[in-house]
Automatic annotation (TrEMBL):
It comes from Sulfurospirillum tamanense. PANTHER family: CARBOXYNORSPERMIDINE SYNTHASE. Residues 10-141 form the Saccharopine dehydrogenase NADP binding domain. This is Saccharopine dehydrogenase NADP-binding domain-containing protein. It holds the Pfam family Sacchrp_dh_NADP.
Length: 439
């Protein structure tokens, strides 16, 4: 039997999610007797990148930081970095989605697997093609026997995985079960004395300002932002929340994976979303020029992006939690599945409902741990990405796993036993998974 070897992992960019992801991969390697992994971080500032690991001296000991003026130099001249990447098992885009394709091309050059956290979805092209740009490289990855796991994280990511697992179970039922509707609801709630964003405000503004898209009767429809809201009761959260339609990767991804499902929607709520709603309804996210400033091309949106508080550093987040500025926070992703069941001896169709999801609310317990400084969004995102990627890499050592894959495709490939291992691993990192048959 071939002995297990430690992993060589490369990150392009590093931030709050990347640090969590690297720490979790470090722990997973040790837990599975793989020894200490080696990390390469391609960054623009080694000093700023190393500062993010202020609670992780062990990671610094097994990490190399490659400081570059910009990533384009790496993409245009991969031969100059052959020594850096030639033994890497996986290249991870922990930066912006616009780097997905060039990093994928590097993966193909160096024979490494690939992973990313998000896609570039806020374009008319994606709405028209209903296809992620990373999928253009599917054939090349398959030919080389490599996999590309795209849209990893918590939502998209773990949420898709849980949906895929349930639908895989439906195929094994002794009666016909059809999924008529998938509706996702996301909660992003933080209670703090100061305005603290869990993600980059300009990203939130871009997402909120984009017309929400959803599938109804298999057709892609759009809505005005913050229209058609509804009240939703999230598990493990005391109050009902007003949630609003948004467009995220899951809408396209789930429709690709389960084309037979006629309706797919996603909503989001919480106090960060309420702030964005207020800005939007006050017309402060408008791209129109301010009166008297047309020549200088100053828009209301550009002013808001400039003056709104930026994301805090992990050290600042740790201090906010330590001194009580951040009192508590919660993330939750719930997928409600509406089913149509046909029993063998009953000619009538029976409607049934199930819910699967994940919740995280223990951000304050991370203080002074290796994950200290993570937010209630970056922590579950990094954990979800790391667990799914790690088990993908392990699975690929003994089974064929190739092509460009979305996470809801993994349960059918992995099988029930490995899916159970993954869910237990997520639970060990304080992510609360739940499943309920509601009718």
């Amino acid at each position: 039997m071939k002995s297990k070897q430690s992993m060589n992992i490369a990150f392009f960019g590093v931030g709050a999610v990347g640090v969590v992801m690297a720490r979790a991969l470090f722990e997973l390697c040790h837990k599975n007797a793989l020894g200490t992994p080696s990390f390469v971080f391609v960054v623009r500032s080694k000093e700023r990148a190393e500062a993010l690991f202020f609670r992780n001296p062990e990671l610094l000991e097994c990490s190399t930081f490659v400081e570059v003026e910009d990533f384009e130099g790496v993409f245009k001249n991969p031969d100059a970095y052959a020594k850096t990447f030639k033994n890497c098992d996986v290249l991870i885009n922990a930066s912006v989605p616009s780097f997905n394709l060039p990093i994928m091309e590097l993966s193909l050059v160096f024979g490494a697997h690939y992973a990313d956290l998000a896609s570039d979805i806020y374009t008319k092209t994606l709405l028209k093609t209903q296809r992620f740009t990373q999928q253009d490289h599917a054939e090349a990855f398959e030919t080389k026997g490599l996999f590309g796991l795209i849209n990893l994280g918590i939502s998209p990511g773990v949420s898709n995985f849980l949906i895929g697992e349930r639908i895989a179970h439906f195929h094994n039922f002794p009666y016909k079960t059809r999924v008529k509707k998938i509706t996702l609801a996301l909660l992003e709630e933080i209670c703090s004395k100061e305005l603290v964003f869990s993600w980059a405000p300009h990203v939130a503004i871009e997402e909120i300002s984009f017309k929400p898209a959803y599938f109804k009767n298999h057709a892609l429809e759009t809505l005005a932002p913050f229209s058609e809201s509804k009240t939703y009761a999230f598990p493990y959260f005391q109050n009902s929340v007003e949630v609003y339609p948004v467009f995220q990767e899951e809408v396209i991804s789930l429709k690709q994976s389960f084309p037979e499902v006629p309706e797919i929607r996603i909503h989001v709520g919480g106090n960060e979303v309420e702030l964005m709603k207020n800005l939007y309804q006050l017309n402060l996210l408008s791209n129109r020029y301010c009166y008297g400033y047309k020549d200088s091309e100053i828009s209301l949106s550009s002013i808001i992006k400039e003056v709104i508080p930026k994301m805090k550093s992990p050290e600042a987040i740790e201090e906010y939690i330590h001194n009580g500025t951040i009192k508590h926070a919660q993330f939750c992703a719930v997928a409600d599945l509406t089913l149509e069941v046909r029993y063998p001896n009953n000619p009538k169709k029976v409607t049934s409902s199930e819910s699967v999801g994940v919740s995280f609310s223990e951000v304050t317990s991370l203080v002074k741990t290796p994950f200290s400084g993570a937010t209630y969004i970056s922590y579950p995102t990094g954990i979800g990405a790391a667990v799914l990627l790690f088990h993908g890499l392990m699975y690929a050592q003994t089974h064929p796993l190739k092509g460009v894959l979305v996470t809801e495709a993994l349960p059918q490939l992995f099988g029930p036993a490995l899916c159970d291992v993954i869910k237990r691993e997520l639970g060990s990192y304080k992510l609360n998974l739940f499943h309920a048959i509601t009718s």
